Prior knowledge:
Blueprint: E1 2-7, E2 10-15, H1 32-41, E3 63-65, E4 68-69, H2 70-78, E5 79-84, E6 90-97, E7 102-104, E8 110-114, H3 118-123, H4 131-138, E9 146-150, H5 151-157, H6 173-186, H7 193-203
Antiparallel strand pairs: 1-2, 3-4, 5-6, 6-7, 8-9
Helix pairs in contact: 1-6, 1-7, 6-7
Amino acid sequence: MKSYTLLPGFLLLALTAAIPVPEPTPPNIPSSSSASTLLTNLIVAPQGPQDGYSRDLFPHWVTIQGECNTRETVLKRDGVSVQTSSTCAATSGSWYSPYDGKTWTLASDLDIDHVVPLSNAWKSGAAAWTTDRRRQFANDLANPQLIAVTDELNQAKGDQGPEEWQPPRTSYRCTYARMWIKVKSAYALTVTASEKSSLNGMLATC
């Protein structure tokens, strides 16, 4: 935003820059070299069938503390100056979506992305898990599995893997790959050959 102040004999141009909202950093993101090693150790296998899959088999969002569920906890973690109601709903704040570089001030404009989608996990090994294990995966705050992003972008991603979908903000693809690899490694999920190739290509941008 530009503002002008008139002084005797001068026109003073003052540039007032908006204070940038910090980029959210989910926990436990490995370095690119560590991610490369983790990727090498992942089992490469074709995806299993979608048969029997339902999002209800991955209970979310669960209560984390008091009135706050997982979604509300991530919104608080990833936002700036977030204010909440007595029921923990975000009433104000700012959120920067690193997938597309957009900033939002309404919590309703954000989705909490499962970096490794629930459906992808199901076809990569989670079909054999217990409900408790799937609940842990769907609400994981210890690994880089959850992040607040532009809702429409999250919906466009759907259950696609990195061989089909990558953040449109290319400078974030390195981080996205490191997050994806960490989650797959933490839960001993498999990767397909094309998925691994795409992840290696994304790490090459680091």
